[in-house]
Design brief:
Blueprint: H1 8-11, H2 20-29, E1 44-45, H3 46-51, E2 53-56, H4 69-79, E3 83-87, H5 93-104, E4 108-112, H6 119-130, E5 134-138, H7 151-169, E6 175-176, E7 197-199, H8 208-222, E8 228-233, H9 250-266, E9 272-274, H10 304-317, E10 331-334, E11 341-346, E12 352-357, E13 363-364, E14 369-370, E15 376-381, E16 387-393, E17 403-408, E18 410-415, E19 420-424
Parallel strand pairs: 1-11, 2-3, 2-9, 3-4, 4-5, 5-6, 7-8, 8-9
Antiparallel strand pairs: 10-15, 11-12, 12-19, 13-14, 15-18, 16-17, 16-19
Helix pairs in contact: 2-8, 6-7, 9-10
Length: 425
Amino acid sequence: MPFSVRGRLALAAAGIVAAVVGAVVLALVLDRQAGPPAVRSDGLSAEGFVDSIGVNVHFSYGDTAYARQPEVLSRLRELGVGHVRDAMANPSELLRSGLQASAEQGIRGTLLADPARDPVAAVGDSVSVMGDGIAAFEGPNEYDNSGDPAWSTTLGGYMPALAAAVAKLAPDVPVLGPTVIDTSNRAQLPADLPGLFNAHPYPGGGPPEPALSQALQERSVLAPRRGVVFTETGYHNALAATVSQPPASEEAAAIYLPRLFATAFGAGVRRTFVYELVDEKPDPGLVDPEQHFGLLRNDLSPKPAFTAIKTLIAAIRASPGPGAAGPLSTKLRVLGDGAVERLDLKREDGSRLVALWRPVTVWDVDARVPVDPGQLPVELNFAGRQARDVTVWRPSVATGPVQSLARSEKLEVGLEGDLVLVSMR
């Protein structure tokens, strides 16, 4: 299987720490009280934010809902993401047709390596299928959980060969480093292994911010000069599960995921992939976590998280028209007690977006019930000018704007647990 079982929380403390640095990193990433990572608020690219959002797919899984490939591709197009993650092209016709159709829809592929295949052949096959639709080649997935007793040695030999094959056959395509399932094992990898820093920060049913912060702390210790990607993260909705990481309700996942994407992008993560697009097989008892990570249910009907991400992307793209070219100077005042995260975005036409959210809990992981975070009022002041065409979006709550103003000098918003987008020009 291209992707392993998501038992991260159960495995997080397992294994033998091979070096002191591994123990330091493990202590960092197991700090469940870690605060949100630092998020820039200086007018990042709105288009870049959309481009940072991806989703995992399994086109070759012919015994799952992915076999309904035309419908799956239609849902992908509806979602609006520009990136999918799947295996590098191989003889599977389902995989090849899915990757090719994605490229034809303008969706780019981050393609995962199999160390059992010759990297030159695998890269060549992938280029022949997707052409310039390949966004990245990725090292083996969580290979410390593969059963290979010499897994780190295997990767030490394989990754330079993969990088050489990419340099020869697809020289403009970046290489992503391999991932590990047990964070302490990362210290066993050669320090000069090719590829961007790559992690799988699953929040375990809780708020996304601490898990992302832990992964970025790990990167700051082991690979501070490397760019960073998250090729898997997300939530499963198997509410009756007793194994693997804890679940979150469909509604909680829909609140957390827009916050997750905004936090990651604002903290400098180049791309973040939610795991995964579709619940693979029927599991009406909600007991098997592996069957409930999808944004779509097994019958391909949208979960609230699918709609929230779709609306988030649509809101970012819904420009009200050209805006001012000057710096964004919107001032935020918090009218109460509580932390507020902020991400400022600028569209190519000069119009602006401000994303606001509270890093709060909306789901009790132990009791498996919703948590009401209350409401925190904040005021956006448009620095003495009248902002035009102000619209307020809550992607986890509604599919369209929840408030619209032709002109405004300031705006008061009540923040709950979900991400709020304010668009203006």
